[in-house]
Amino acid sequence: MLLIAGLGNPGQGYAKNRHNIGFMAVDEIARRWGFSPARSRFQSLASEGSIDTPAGPVRALLLKPQTYYNETGRAVGEALKFFKLQPADLVVFYDEIDLAPGRFRMKTGGGAAGNNGIRSIAAQVSPDFRRARLGTGHPGAKELVQGHVLSDFHKVELKWVAPLLEACADALPLLAAGEDERYQAEVMRLAPADKADPRALARGKDA
Description:
By secondary structure, this protein is an alpha/beta fold.
C-alpha cells in the first residue's frame, strides 16, 4: 500500500496559496485515478483508490491533513501507524521554494531545509520518507518567504501549475512502482520548465 500526502492548510482562504500546491496535487491525483470521495479520517480528508502499474494495481490512500501545515506529522504519523507502513511507503507532495517555478524533483530522506511541515513529518515518522518537491520559486529574501508561500498563485503562474499537476497524476504508475527517478523524468517530460536559480529569478523581477 502507498500513502500519498499533500501539504497545505485547510479552508478556502488558503486554497489557492503556493503553500497548498501539495493539496492541489493530491486533488488532481484523486480526479485522474477515480479515488473515492474524501472523508474525515486520520485528522485529514482521506480518499482511497488504486493506481494501475505494469505489475498490477497498487492500493493507495490520499491524505490532505487538516492539522495545518506545520503540524502535518500528527496526521501522517497516525495513518502510517494504523496501516503498519514504513517510511518508504510514504510520498509527500509539497511546495519547494528552492526550486524554480514549475520544476519537479523527487528525493528520499534528508533534512527539512526550513520546511516546518517536512520537519513535523520527520519528527513523527523518521526522515526517510519519499518527497515529491514542486518548485514554486523563491521571493529573493528570507523575510519575504512567509508572505510568498501564503499568497495565491498569480493568474500567469497557472500556465505552469496546471500542466505540472496533471503530469504528476499522469505519470503516477511509475511512482507507485517505486521508480522515483523515472517518475521525476516523466513529470518533467510532460511538463517541462526552465531550470533556473529561483533567487535570481526573483531578483530579475525586482530589477
